[in-house]
Structures are given as structure tokens and as C-alpha cells.
Amino acid sequence: MTQLRLFDTYERKIRDLVPLQGNEVGLYACGPTVYNYVHIGNLRTYIFEDLLRRTIEHAGFELKHVMNITDVGHLTSDADSGEDKMEVGSRRSGMDAWGMAEFYTAAFKNDLEKLNIYPPHIWCKATDHIAEQISMIQELEGKGYTYPTSDGIYFNSRKLSNYGHLARLNIEGLLAGARVEQGERQYVTDFALWKFSKPDENRQMEWDSPWGVGFPGWHIECSAMSAKYLGDFFDIHCGGKDHIPIHHTNEIAQTEASRGTRLANFWMHGYFLELQNEKMSKSSGDFLQLISLADAGFDPLVYRYFCLTAHYRNELSFSWEGLVAAKTALNRLYEAAYEWGEPGEVSEHYRARFVEHLYEDLNVPRALAAAWELIRSDEPNDVKKATLLEFDEIFGLDIASWEPEEVSVPVDVQQLVTAREQARLDKDWSQADALREKILALGFIIEDAGDKTKIKPV
Ligand code: AMP
Ligand code: ZN
Asked: Going by CA atoms, what residue is nearest to atom 7 of ligand 1?
């Protein structure tokens, strides 16, 4: 058996995945903040996590996948001074914060489904877990890690000797700069655990707490919910790369201080989808969504294929040309597999190559290259088909169910096609060619494949 190995950001190395308990792997993924639709960059991270999940299951482990929905407490500024994105989103959208959270959560789940991303076994919302968050803050308070300011309860990051290890933060350097952004915080790396509602703010989402009416910080929600569903030390925690220096650093700090663990055995991060000319800020309101791609004629699975072409620890640069290339490649793959007919035996040789790449820190682009080698190989068609279908359990491209689109051909064109077939039977090649030209002039191309004739729009 090939051993599955994964890169751990905490230790900065590729290690064997050995479950902490029996054969079970606990996986927590930071979910979206539901104040708007997600953009295609966010979706790249969820595709990465889906590939991770499928690979873990492929390796024979039992997976428990938990994802949260951030529906309160994520501020517009990482310095804990901005407004709650949910309240801002509510003003922008005209929906109340609760209804808006439900609306964008449903839209997110819909995107996941279109991309063949398996839903987690457990969904959890921050607003459903206020009690757990308050009790974790109380634990931190009891251990002397907190202090109040005029706007909330803060975590004292200097009390932890290894604060910032995940991101290899240069704490002394950070403390030397950034005085202005520090506000009332004792150190610039301190962060809010609980924020008080401002008297003039009129917040829609607020709760009573031992410290006053307010709402939890964004980091405490993930520490509290992941521990509730997966325990104080579980196998894998993942999210996008931007979470390394702040969100995940602070999750680790809270759990280390309250429970004495670094929360997860592996910390895994998906690198960004970068856009050259397109915008990709959810708060700017002007960004590419899955539906924008569909409007431009790209099936969601074309976007999934596009993401398979880059390793998750490399940036991926978005371009429309790249998407066109993905569409062409995916169609070739579908058509080839369709023509191969029924599946036979799986090729052991290609299976081994595929697994070797996949299990070495999810090298999906190499695994995809192995699929293309298989397609071009001289393996029998039924072997190619069985092997590719097995690969698709990871790729998630719906290869088995693909069928060529039914082309609707107008009656006059159909009559010309029939006449041309007759001309070919009569071996009247010049007449057949003339009819082909006429058909082309009406916008259809004829392809003769053996004794079959295919018609495609130009
Ligand atoms: P948010 O809703 O901002 O909390 O983001 C949801 C997820 O998307 C997080 O895991 C982020 O790290 C991730 N993310 C944000 N922007 C990008 C991007 N451009 N490319 C890939 N992942 C991203
Ligand atoms: Zn999180």
C-alpha cells in the first residue's frame, strides 16, 4: 500500500498521514463568511479540500468532515477595528442579517453541488454555537489570557511563548511597528475574543455574555466548533493560505492556551487563485462567480478541471484563455471516454502511477498527466475506460455520465444530409462534396467517421 503523505504548514514538511485515532480522520475546513456570493477564488479552496477529502477516502480512511459557516463576527479589518461584514452586507443587500446569511449559505451550497464538491458530514454555524464560544472565552479568562478594553475582551498573545509559530511570525518586528493600528490592545498581535455592541450601532446580531452585550470574534468560533465536533486535537485543519498569519494563528493560540494542544495535527492551506485584470474582492461586490463563468458558456466542471491543472500549493492564475483550454481538454477527455464503450479491467500500471502522484501531497496535476498518458497509450479501450473512471472518483468530472449534446438540426439541413448519404452510396463524390458545401453554408459541419455521419454546428 502506498502511504498518503501531506504537507503540514505547522512543521513545514511533508509527513505521513497517520490518524490520531484508529482509522478515522477528522477534517475541519473554514467555511465562507456569508455576506455575499462566494467568488471563484474561494471556490478554488473548496475544490482543493474536496480533492483532499476524496484522496483520504481513497486511501481507505474513514473521514469526518466538518465545515463552518461564518455568519457573525468576521470584521472588515483584521486589526479588529472594522465593522462586522454581516452588518455591512445587510445594509448593502437590503436583507436582514439572518435572512441574508441563509440566502448566501444556500447559494454557496448550490455552487458546491455544481462543482461536484461533497458536502461536509457536519455543517455548523457560528450563531448556533454562542454558548460554546462564551465558555471557551471563560476558560481563557480563568487561565489569565484575557483583558478587557473599552470595546471588548482581548487575548494576550504575549502570554504564549510560541505565539505565531504557524506563520513563523517575527513578533519583535511586528511589535516594533504598527503602533497606530494597535488601538487599546496591549500588543499589536492581540485579538478580540468578544466585542461589545456599540450603543449607537443598532446591531441585528448580538447576545448577552458575562462581559456585556455583544458578539464573538471570528477566530473563537472555529476553535470552539472544531473542538466540539472533532475534539481538542484532531487530524487536519484547512483553509486558504491567507488564513495562516492571523485566523489560524489565533485559533491555535486560543486552543493552546485553553486546552494545551495546537488544535490539529496537520494544518493545510490552499494557495490563491489570482486574477490579472478581473477583480476578486467579495466586499467590492464586483467579482467573478461561478454563474459569471456559466454566463460566458463555461460549465462549472470546466472550472473544476481548470483547478486540477495546478498543484494546491501553487498560485493559479485565472484567464479566459486558460478556461477555454480547459474546456477543450475536458471535452476531448469526455469524447474519448464515450467512444471507448463499456469498461473492462483497470490497468495496474496506470493505477500505480496515479496513486503515486496523488498520495505524494496531492499532486493532482501529475495524476491528470498520467490520465492523458493513459488516453494516448495503446492499452485496449475497455481498460482505458475502466482506469479513467476509477481516476474520476478523485477528479470528480462526471466522466461516466457524459453524453454528446443532442444537436438540433433543421429539416432542410437534414434533407441535404440524407441526400448526401445517398450520393455517397451511389459513389457520386462530386455531388456529395457539393452537398457538404451547401450544408456548411447553412452553418453545419459534416464529419464522416467510418460508416457514421456526425453533424455539428460550425
Ligand atoms: P472568506 O469567505 O473570506 O472567509 O473565504 C472563504 C475561503 O476562501 C477561505 O478559506 C479563504 O482562505 C479562501 N480564499 C479567499 N480568497 C481566495 C482566493 N483568491 N483563492 C483561493 N482561496 C481564497
Ligand atoms: Zn476558521
From this structure: 42
- Here the cell at position 314 is 501553487
pLDDT single digits (tens) 48-63: 999 999 999 999 999 9
Can you tell me the mean pLDDT for 441-447? 87
Q: Which ligand is nearest to the CA of 274?
A: 1
Residues in contact with ligand 1 (CB, 6 Å cut-off): 30, 32-33, 41-42, 44-45, 239-240, 242-243, 270, 272-273, 280
Q: Which residue has the cell 490520465?
A: 371
For the chain, what are the domain ranges? 5-274, 293-395, 411-457
CATH number of 5-274: 3.40.50.620
pLDDT per residue as tens digits for the range 333-351:
999 999 999 999 999 999 9
Among the listed residues 200, 187, 184, 189, the one whose alpha carbon sits nearest the alpha carbon of residue 148: 184
Q: Which of 139, 144, 184, 189 is nearest to 169 (CA)?
A: 189
For the whole model, what pTM was predicted?
Answer: 0.90
Cβ 390 vs Cβ 346: under 8 Å = yes
Residue nearest atom 4 of ligand 1, based on CA coordinates: 32
Of 42, 117, 312, best ligand 1 pocket probe by most atoms within 8 Å of the beta carbon: 42
**pLDDT value for 285:** 61
**How many CA within 13 A on the CB side of residue 46?**
27
Grid cell in block for residue 382: 475497455
Give residue 133's identity as a one-letter amino acid code.
Q
- The atom number, within ligand 1, closest to the CA of 70 reads 4
73 C-alpha to ligand 2 centroid (Å): 11
Which ligand ends up closest to the CA of 242? 1
- Residue 113, pLDDT > 90, answer yes
Question: What's the CA-to-centroid distance between 400 and ligand 2, angstroms?
Answer: 35
Equal fold, 5-274 vs 293-395: no
Q: What is the CATH number of domain 293-395?
A: 1.10.730.10
| Closest C-alpha to ligand 1, atom 15 | 42
- Highest averaged pLDDT of the listed ranges 247-256, 412-421, 446-455: 247-256
pLDDT recorded at residue 450: 62
Q: Which atom, in ligand 1's list, is nearest to the CA of 273?
A: 20
Flag whether pLDDT at 277 surpasses 80: no
